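Example for tutorial group B:
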């Protein structure tokens, strides 16, 4: 079958995208962190918490890769594409850091529970979901929530190595969410009204899901008790969690006060 010929414009991005991409590259070049991991105290709850962090960082890798593929399908500018690939590489590094911290705290846990709301391998399956949906899911919702939660955890991280690791991840995530909202501001206002309605429904479904991924309120009772206990012990020991009630409350407030108003401004009727 003959395929029709297509333009490959290879455009540069706008100034804001170029600057943010540069910030990402400079951060990636500067990071060297793992020196203190060998002296962490043993704490099984914190090891489990950081294992969960590693699974969730790994799940961000296919999410960013899917976004990058959607950018290529839409002939997006190369600075946006370069930034997205760099974010994917950052998420691999965050996965390694989290695994190494979990090992320092007593051992990385390989087995994800059966009722976990996400699985990195599932997110890696082929998807033809259009770019605006990936931007809303990753750039706007996940990265913004993850930044706010990491900031809250940082406030409880009394252990110096944990504090250093978290603050490096926080700074990365701050640039990630900036890129996400920059992309959203360029792409979302131009989509059709029908797609905007679909995006609103999609965002609402994601807000439901975060009660199980970023917060613990939506988990089945037994998993919820255990998730809360792990967070309470880890927070009290200054090892990188924040107390579960605060995390739950913050997740809901971030959606209501940050994400929904910003998406509304971009024409998504929530
Ligand atoms: Fe990350
Ligand atoms: Fe990120």
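The residue assignment follows.
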């Amino acid at each position: 079958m003959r395929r029709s010929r297509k333009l490959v414009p290879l455009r540069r991005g706008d100034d804001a995208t170029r600057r943010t991409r540069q910030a990402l590259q400079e951060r990636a070049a500067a990071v060297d962190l793992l020196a203190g991991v060998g002296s962490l105290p043993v704490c099984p709850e914190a090891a489990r918490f950081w294992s969960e962090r590693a699974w969730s960082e790994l799940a961000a890798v296919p999410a960013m890769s899917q976004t990058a593929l959607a950018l290529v399908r839409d002939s997006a500018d190369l600075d946006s594409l370069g930034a997205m690939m760099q974010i994917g590489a950052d998420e691999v590094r965050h996965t390694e850091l989290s695994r190494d911290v979990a090992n320092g705290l007593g051992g990385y846990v390989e087995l994800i529970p059966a009722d976990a709301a996400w699985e990195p391998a599932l997110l890696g399956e082929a998807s033809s979901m259009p770019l605006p949906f990936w931007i809303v899911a990753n750039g706007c919702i996940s990265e913004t929530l993850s930044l706010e939660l990491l900031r809250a955890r940082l406030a409880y991280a009394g252990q110096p190595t944990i504090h250093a690791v978290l603050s490096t991840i926080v700074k990365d995530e701050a640039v990630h969410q900036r890129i996400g909202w920059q992309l959203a501001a360029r792409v979302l206002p131009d989509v059709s009204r029908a797609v905007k309605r679909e995006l609103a429904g999609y965002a609402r479904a994601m807000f439901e899901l975060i009660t199980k991924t970023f917060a613990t309120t939506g988990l089945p009772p037994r998993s919820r008790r255990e998730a809360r206990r792990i967070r309470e012990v880890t927070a009290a020991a200054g090892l990188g969690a924040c107390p579960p009630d605060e995390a739950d409350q913050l997740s809901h407030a971030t959606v209501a006060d940050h994400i929904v108003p910003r998406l509304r401004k971009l024409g998504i009727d929530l």
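The two ends are 43 Å apart (CA to CA). Compare this with the pattern of hydrophobic and polar residues in the output above.
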